[in-house]
Design brief:
The chain has helices at 2-7, 11-30, 38-41, 43-67, 73-103, 117-123, 131-134, 142-156, 165-245, 249-273. With 279 residues, it is mainly alpha-helical. Helix 2 runs antiparallel to helix 4. InterPro entries: Vesicle_transport_protein_Use1.
Length: 279
């Protein structure tokens, strides 16, 4: 059932919801009155915010590409106007982030100003070592006094490991999206090229078949013309024979029949009567 529910979800709607959430968070973090102050002091926060902006830009490009396939004009215009407004917001966020990068400092590039060094720096003067009340300060002893202080700081407030999961995940997600887009564009280009080659080959084959059919039709037409000419010549010959046989009218036909009868009589006499005659 869960698979059926998720199969009915439109990926474009999911991408639009993700884009709206990301832009809302970034707008609250960068452009609002209570913007995050860590952006001015932490390059890590700025890098993470820049990765989120790139992810939002990738979602926007995907939605812009898919919005052209919407068939309803009103829905397509509304979607494109919303995407245009979101693109303008992304541009404002990018410009503001560039200004923050130009104004910010990189005192703590990993964890920002929330590290425990400032708190320990305030607590260190309240517990000075006893040697300072007895002995005058000496220059060579400065490293020895600073080492216990840093040791105490590290012992009471161990340094927090940098949280590299989010930027790595954001960078990996962005790299995967770019790789998928490149793969899809390469596959689309190759398929279009293959389709163009197939269309060209089919058109060439169709033209060759048309030429062959044209030649066959021409030969058939020539054969029909020759047959018609032969039929006309045969008709002329038959007419000539008919005129030769019937050129003299009924009297000529009766004479022809008489000659035939006479020849029959002569033949019978020669066959039956001739052998009986003895000289």
């Amino acid at each position: 059932m869960a698979r059926g529910l998720f199969s009915n979800v439109n990926p474009q709607d999911v991408a639009a919801i993700d884009l709206g959430r990301v832009l809302s968070r970034l707008e609250h973090k960068i452009l609002s009155a209570d913007a995050d102050p860590r952006l001015l002091h932490s390059s890590y926060e700025r890098t993470k915010t820049s990765a989120n902006l790139e992810y939002a830009r990738t979602l926007l490009l995907r939605l812009e590409h898919s919005s052209s396939s919407i068939k309803q004009p009103s829905k397509r215009n509304a979607t494109q106007s919303d995407l245009f407004a979101q693109r303008a917001l992304i541009k404002r966020l990018t410009d503001r982030l560039h200004d923050i990068e130009a104004q910010g400092d990189d005192d703590d590039p990993l964890n920002g100003p929330e590290d425990g060094e400032d708190i320990l720096g305030e607590e260190a003067p309240t517990h000075p070592p006893p040697a300072q009340d007895v002995l005058p300060p000496e220059t060579p002893s400065a490293p020895s006094t600073s080492e216990p202080t840093s040791t105490l700081r590290n012992r009471h407030h161990p340094s927090k490991p940098p949280d590299e999961t989010n930027p790595l995940q954001a960078g990996a997600t962005q790299a995967d999206l770019l790789a998928n887009n490149d793969t899809e564009s390469a596959n689309l280009t190759s398929s279009l090229f293959t389709l163009a080659q197939a269309l060209k080959a089919s058109s060439t084959q169709f033209a060759a078949s048309l030429e062959t059919d044209t030649e066959t039709l021409n030969r058939a037409t020539e054969g029909l013309d020759k047959n018609a000419t032969g039929m006309e010549a045969a008709g002329k010959r038959m007419g000539l024979l008919k005129r030769m046989s019937e050129g003299k009218g009924w009297w000529g036909r009766i004479m022809l029949y008489a000659w035939i009868a006479g020849l029959w009589v002569v033949a019978i006499l020669l066959v039956f009567v001739g052998p009986k005659l003895r000289f």
